[in-house]
Amino acid sequence: MNDKQTPDVNRDLKKDDLIVIAGAGGFIAGALVRYFHDLGFSRIRAIDKKPLPHWYQQVPGVENLSLDLSEKVNAIRAVEGAVEVYNLAADMGGMGFIERFRVECLRSILINTHMIEASYNAGIKRYFFSSSACAYNTELQKDPNVRALKESDAYPAMAERGYGWEKLLSEMFCEEYWAERGMKTFIARFHNVYGPYGTWDGGREKAPAAMCRKVIEAKDSGATEIIIWGDGHQTRSFMYIDDCVLGIDLITHCDELIATPINLGSSDLVSINGLVSLVEKIGGIKLERKYDLEAPTGVAGRNSDNTFIQQVLKWEPNTPLDIGMQATYSWIEQQFVDRKAGKNTVIDRL
Length: 350
Ligand code: NAD
Known about the structure:
Helix 1 (27-38) links the parallel strand 1 (19-22) and strand 2 (44-48). The mean pLDDT is 94. The chain is an alpha/beta fold. The chain is built from 11 helices and 13 strands. It has helices at residues 27-38, 72-79, 95-98, 102-106, 108-121, 163-179, 207-221, 241-252, 272-283, 307-313, 321-340, and strands at residues 19-22, 44-48, 63-66, 84-87, 126-132, 184-190, 193-194, 225-229, 235-237, 239-240, 262-264, 269-271, 288-292. The protein has 2 domains: 19-195 and 238-264, Rossmann fold; 207-235 and 269-307 and 320-349, UDP-galactose 4-epimerase, domain 1 (Alpha-Beta Complex). Nicotinamide-adenine-dinucleotide is lined by residues 23, 25-29, 48-50, 68-70, 88-92, 111, 130, 132, 190, 192-193, 199, 206. Nicotinamide-adenine-dinucleotide (NAD) binds next to helix 1 and strand 5.
């Protein structure tokens, strides 16, 4: 999306080796399918439990399967013949989802245990797992002026209830499948990812998409207010989707990172109020802010310490927030217009 130098990736992968991508009806894995397809990989199998018409993206020439990967038999079918497996399937959403549906979040352990065992039995060469910054100790995230989180901050463990603990345990599976069984596993801890073709309505959306939608709705209806969850002082960093998929590729093809969790996120900290101001600027409108102090907000502050990724990959996510948010806003605005006109838009409802 901008003219940054793309780092080289050392892939030991032939163009017709089978790549399996799980969770591909969703946001990040959908973008990853497109990314590998556009690089010229000719055999990609994309899998999601949602029926195909509900996928955010369907890329031509890709084998799309609708399978529930929390079932062992489906996980075995999914990885058959694969050389690399990218497991991004999870029952998840923004704070509104992960604070209300902890059981659903914890049950993603079924996907991860079946997928890693099936991948091991299938003799795959590389296995990628999408972990999360929610695996970090919440005690270190009580102040909006946070110290950025480095990889060692996950232990002693006090992860986000439900979702974060599941990620931490699934990371451990990846570590032990390498230590005991010699399967090359790779673990990225994503920090808030945003961009086009993600969830923007329905209850699973995250702050950047939610802010865009609220501003677009206000412009459309003539409303003068915007409701913000919490006091707006919470801080986060946000990574653009293009950086995320490139980061996944770089991490999975770096042997120095085998079974080693690594941050994949932006280190550019912004408050929720700052994010709202940016979206208002993009939308060309100023709204009166109402703060819902009862709404779920998660930890007070969270940022990614990128010392390790810079050291190993000589790269870090670097799309400026205003550029990424402009692209995201434009895409959501078009979705909004299409939906209003009665066209078919995909919304992942709770
Ligand atoms: P998403 O909800 O858009 O995509 C996840 C997909 O997994 C969905 O399409 C869902 O239908 C699918 N899925 C759920 N259960 C399944 C099952 N049993 N079998 C097959 N498919 C199933 O979410 P996303 O934002 O694309 O997240 C992808 C991964 O990245 C997840 O593991 C998530 O925990 C992780 N992550 C995302 C973020 C973020 O900011 N988006 C941050 C940290 C970690």
